[in-house]
Each structure stands twice: as structure tokens, then as C-alpha cells.
Amino acid sequence: NAGVTQTPKFQVLKTGQSMTLQCAQDMNHNSMYWYRQDPGMGLRLIYYSASEGTTDKGEVPNGYNVSRLNKREFSLRLESAAPSQTSVYFCASSATGTDNEQFFGPGTRLTVL
Amino acid sequence: EDQVTQSPEALRLQEGESSSLNCSYTVSGLRGLFWYRQDPGKGPEFLFTLYSAGEEKEKERLKATLTKKESFLHITAPKPEDSATYLCAVFTSGTYKYIFGTGTRLKVLA
Q1: How near does any CA of chain A get to the CA of B2, in Å?
Q2: What string of DSSP letters covers B36-79?
Q3: Strand, coil or helix: what is B82?
Q4: A109 - beta bridge partners?
Q5: Over the stretch B31-85, which tens digit does the pLDDT of each residue have?
Q6: Backbone torsions φ then ψ of A85, nearest 5 degrees
Q7: Does the pLDDT of residue A98 top 60, yes or no?
Q8: A103 touches B46 (CB < 8 A)
Q9: CB atoms closer than 10 angstroms to residue B108
Q10: Closest by alpha carbon to B65, among B53, B77, B76, B75?
Q11: I need a labelling partner for B67 at 20 to 30 A (CA). Which of A20, A55, A70, B13 fits?
């Protein structure tokens, strides 16, 4: 039981390049989330998927797209990376029900030059 | 606007010196308040969920309490391994969104 896994762990991009962050969970959770964490800003929600087949914008969605590929997988894509997207990205999942705790992956540390 | 504020930003304690971390919130309808622990370079790890004022939960040296305006995470006789950032988050009515505070960085010195 791996919980929530994320790939890659580290990534360096040049401005304008694109990339996809992958996330998978093996806990049969319905809801999945993407956050970014910046110093002094706390965790901010980028996008979330309440259930398979649905996605919605969070607090800071600009510059990102997501795909809920199936119940297990939720990917985050940066189409044209910008230095402002340098951050640590966390994927999380939670069981059915809107008041359940979230389980987080280990994070992806992204630097955009 | 829904808001979560944690204090202090950082706290240094001697081993065995008990203290409390604060999480104050202003939300339209609280569905749950969560405490997480985050170690450097890792994702947050769930500690507690509190649902209603007056509720308390304990785990080893940690005890979380909830009022209508704030939550406290009490740390009794802390050890160096309790050093981490502690995050508070709220989940509000009518949304699927969690709102996180910026955390309290706790350092326990041996």
C-alpha cells in the first residue's frame, strides 16, 4: 500500500517549457487535489477533482491544467512554465465525503529558470 | 472571506517545556478542522480532525481542542522528534475545498 505517489521528485525547466506532474493513489479515494506550497504562503489549492470525471478550479488555477485520468490518477500540466511557478507541488487524496482528512504525496520540487 | 491564521510563526522550546499552538479561523460554516504535521522535504501528515466546539482529541504528547473561533494544539513535555511544521486547515460548508494556514515551525531543543 503505497498511499499517494508523485513523479518526478525534482524538476528544472526553462521558461516556456511544458511538463506534466503525475499523481496516483491506491486507497480507492474519490477526491484528489493539487496544491502548491510557497514560503510564507501556506498550501494553496490549484485544482481538485471531487470524483472521477469531474475537475474544478481552486484558488490559483491560472497557468495549469489537470486531467483525472481514472479513479487512481490525477495529473497536473504546465503548458508554458514561468518563473512564478517555481514551487513545491503536492498531490493529495481523500475518501468520499467532504470532511475527510487528506493524504498527501511526497511532493515535486519544481524550479523554472 | 474564509480565513485561517496560525500563531506563532515559529516556536523554540526546550525538551519537556510544554506549550500551545494557535489556529484561529473565520469561515462561513465549519465542517471540520484538521491538524497536520509536516517534516522538511515531505508532505503533510494527518494528525487530528475536530468537528464541533468543545471537542478534544489526543495522540501521544499532542492534544487538539476546538472552540467556535479557534483551535489549539497543546504539546506536553515535547521531545526533539516533535520538531516539525504544524499546519491547520478548515473545511467549509458547500465546498470541496480546504483552507490551510501558513503553519507554525516548532523546534524542540535537547
Answers
A1: 12
A2: EEE-TTS--EEEEEE-STT-EEEETTEEEEE-SSEEEEEE-S--
A3: helix
A4: A10, A88
A5: 899 999 999 999 999 999 999 999 999 999 999 999 999 999 999 999 999 999 9
A6: -95, 5
A7: no
A8: yes
A9: 21
A10: B53
A11: B13
Q: What are the tens digits of pLDDT across the range A26-78?
A: 999 999 999 999 988 889 999 999 888 899 999 899 999 999 989 999 999 99
Per the CB < 8 A criterion, the answer to whether A70 and A32 are in contact is no
8 Å CB contact of B95 and A98: yes
* A20: its cell numbers: 506534466
Cβ(A47)–Cβ(A35) below 8 Å: no
Matching residue, cell 518563473? A83
Do residues B73 and B64 lie in contact, with contact meaning Cβ atoms separated by under 8 Å?
yes
Q: B32 touching A, CB under 8 A?
A: yes
Spatial distance between the Cα atoms of B85 and B23, rounded to a whole number of angstroms: 13
B103 is written with which cell numbers?
Answer: 503553519
For residues A8-27, average pLDDT:
97
